[in-house]
Structure formats: C-alpha cells, structure tokens
Amino acid sequence: xxxxxxxGGMGVxxxxxxxxxxxxxxxxxxxxxxxxxxEQLVVGKIWNGAGGVPGSMFFRDEGKRxxxxxxxxxxxxxxxxxxGTGDGFxxxxxxxxxxxxxxxxxxxxxxxxxxxxxxxxxxLEKVLAGPGAGMVYACGPRAMLRRTAELLARYGVxxxxxxxxxxxxxxxxxxxxxxxxxxEEGAPFVYRRVxxxxxxxxxxxxxxx
Length: 209
Known about the structure:
InterPro entries: Dihydroorotate_DH_ele_sf, Dihydroorotate_DH_Fe-S-bd, FNR_nucleotide-bd, PyrK_electron_transfer. By secondary structure, the chain is an alpha/beta fold.
C-alpha cells in the first residue's frame, strides 16, 4: 500500500520511526517534510549526519545537492545506499543491488531555502491529486494538521494525525491537553485527553473549530 507521511517542524522526527516500520511491512512511503527554513529541516540534518535512522534505515552523505534541491529518492536496507532523484529509477529492482523498499521524500520551507517555497501541505495536495495515496499520517503544528484534514476530506483519503498539545500532568488528571472530537448522541463535540486517549486521532474524529 502507498502511505504518505507529512511532518512539520519538530513533527518530522517521530515519523522516521513510523517510516521504518512501514518499510518492514513493504509499504511504499512518500515522506513530506516541512519547516520554516532549511536550517530547521530535521530531515536534512539526519541525512547529512554521520549516522542515520535506527534499524534498517541508513543514509550516506553523498547527496547534499539533491537534498538542497528539495527532493530525494531513497532505497532503504542493509546496504545503506541511497540515490538522488536524478538516478533514473522508479522501482527498487531498477537499481540493481538495492534492497526492496523505496522511499520518496520531498521538502518544503516557508522561506524557500530548501525545496518547495511554501507550506508542506502544498506538496500533500499534489500527492493526493495523483493516484496511489491510500493512507496519510501527519505530525506537526495544529494549522498544518487542520489543512491536512481539509485536504483528506476533499480527496476522500483516510488519515491519522498526532497532536502536539501542552501537557501539565501527562496522566489525564489536569485536563490541560484536551481536544474536541466528534460528539455522540447529538452532542456537537466531546473533549478527549491527548495525553491518555491520544496523541493520535483519526482526522475525521477531530473537531478543528
């Protein structure tokens, strides 16, 4: 299945672990990462670092130019090899010695310093307008998540979002992190605690206001 991951700001980081698990399940992943500027783009720091992502995902420092262009295709596996989008293949088998999982990433920055000049949800809309997107997972600022929910409703694609809320106690007692979710039995909405009943919710379950 084709899965789209959408991350904004700090919300990019936790999606790497989801991407790794999706890879194990043979999902084709499109990773959309956004930030205010290139310096704050977490995905670039990880790709150009000495290590990589835990587990089976490895990225070598051989494609900074591709990263700055704002789009990269990675093949993930024990070889630790990745390729830029100019390498001219669309499936893992085309790359010869490459393992069996293909990840595509596109980046967006508010100031245009890396990738698309604008919000990462612009990239999401382009992906949803094409074929193949079966599920979307998103993590980031509330405005980004609200726009993601609007786009998923428009294109009829299911999705889940991980909310970022300030939490006082973390155990559900203080109610400082509540969010509005779809009501039951005629109620317009029901409050749910992000720390206990979240932080992940289906997009059609949330009331954005």
